[in-house]
Amino acid sequence: xxxxxxxxxxxxxxxxxxxxxxxxxxxxxxxxxxxxxxxxxxxxxxxxxxxxxxxxxxxxxxxxxxxxxxxxxxxxxxxxxxxxxxxxxxxxxxxxxxxxxxxxxxxxxxxxxxxxxxxxxxxxxxxxxxxxxxxxxxxxxxxxxxxxxxxxxxxxxxxxxxxxxxxxxxxxxxxxxxxxxxxxxxxxxxxxxxxxxxxxxxxxxxxxxxxxxxxxxxxxxxxxxxxxxxxxxxxxxxxxxxxxxxxxxxxxxxxxxxxxxxxxxxxxxxxxxxxxxxxxxxxxxxxxxxxxxxxxxxxxxxxxxxxxxxxxxxxxxxxxxxxxxxxxxxxxxxxxxxxxxxxxxxxxxxxxxxxxxxxxxxxxxxxxxxxxxxxxxxxxxxxxxxxxxxxxxxxxxxxxxxxxxxxxxxxxxxxxxxxxxxxxxxxxxxxxxxxxxxxxxxxxxxxxxxxxxxxxxxxxxxxxxxxxxxxxxxxxxxxxxxxxxxxxxxxxxxxxxxxxxxxxxxxxxxxxxxxxxxxxxxxxxx
Length: 526
Description:
Immunoglobulin-like, five-stranded mixed β-sheet, 4 helices, 25 strands, beta-catenin binding
C-alpha cells in the first residue's frame, strides 16, 4: 500500500450494494504477477462492508453490505489485506508477498424521514362503538440530530378510509362512523408521517383494524321450517333434526339450546329433545295421527345462544301429516289424496279433468254451430225470393218451351203457400164457374169496374198469365254473340245468317227465313 491508513466519508443514506470508496496497493511486477487480491480482515465494522478488485485498475472497491445510521454509529474502522493473486513457489522463501492497511469510514448525517416504531399496526374495535372513540395510536420519530416534530395523516384512497380519523399531532386513531361487523369485518389503510421541518420527507405504515362482533341477533332455526309425520308414527320417533343459525359471528365454543315454548309444553302431540351439541330432534308423543282429523300442526321452538347479552327467538315449525307405507316412506301429503281411491295419483286426476274439459268444449262448439246454422236458415226463409237470382244450369227448349222452369220460385213465398195454383200457364183441369151478380140499372160505373176487378183478381183462370223471358247468354263470348242492334250492319243484305243452321232443328224456321230470303215461301211453313 502507498499509505497505511485510508480515510473515507460515507453518507448514511447510501444504498446497500453501492461503492463507498477505493484503495490501491502498488506492485512493481508486470502481467499476471501484478494481479492483486483484496480482503477485509475480520474485526470492528468489517461486517458492514465488502471489498472487490477492479480488474482494470487493480484497485480495491469497498461496497456497503448493510444500511448505515448516523444516529446509531458515526464511524467504522477495519483492516484490508492486499496479496498477489498468483504466487511463484520458487520465491516462497523470499517473503509473504502481501501488505495490510487500515480503513476508517466516517458516516455523514443526512436529513431523513420519520421512522415508525412498528412496521405494521393492528387494532381491534367492537361494532356499534360510538363515533369519536379512540381505538389506538401510531408513533413516528425524527432520528436526525435536529429532531424535528412529526405530523400524521391518513392516506386517502377510497371511501373506507372515512370511517376513521387521526390526530395530526398525537397520532391517535378514532372512529368517524358507526361500524357494522356483518357489513365489514376488517379495515386496511395507511398512515403517513412527515417532518415539520421538511414536509417532503415522509414515511408510511400500514394499519389493520378488526371489527369485533357484538351479540345483537338472536339465533334462528336453519331450514327447513316445515317437516312431515306419518299417520302410523309411534311415540318417541324422531321426525326431524334441527340446527341453529346466527347472523352474528359466533365465538369459539358458542352453544345453542332448544326447547318448546311454554304454551306448547302441555300439548300431547310433539316435543323437542335437545342433544346439547347445537342440534335438537323433533319427536312424536302420540301413537298415530289422522289427516282427516288434523292435517297440519304448528310447533313453536325456542332457541337461545350463550353469548352476552343472551339472545333468543321463537321459531314456528309446520308439521304436515302424510300417508306412509309400513317402512315409513311417504306416499302422499296432499289433502285431496284422502278422498281419492288408492293408486290414483294427482297426475292421473289432472289428466282426467283435462279430458272432461276438452269434451265440454267440443260439445259447446257443436251446439253453437247448430244454432248458428238454424238461425241462418230462418233468416233466409223470411227474405223475398224475388230479390234473389235463380240460376238454372241447364239448356232451355227455345221459344216453344214454356215449362222449363217454375216461375213460381220468383213469387212471394207467402202467396205460393196461400194459393198453390200456378199462374204462369193456363189451368187445364180446374174451371170454376163464375157467378156474377146481376147489374142494377142505376149502378155507378166506378163501382162496376171495381167489382169486376176484384172478381178477376181472385180468379186463377183469368188472364193475363204471368211469364218471364230470360236472356242469360247474350253478348260477347256466347254462341249467339250480341243481339243488340247497335252493332248491326247497315243493311240486312250485308248480314250472314248461315250460322242459324248450326243451332239445331228448333231454329230451322229462323234459318230458312233469314238464310235465303228468295227461297223462303211463307205458304210452305207449317
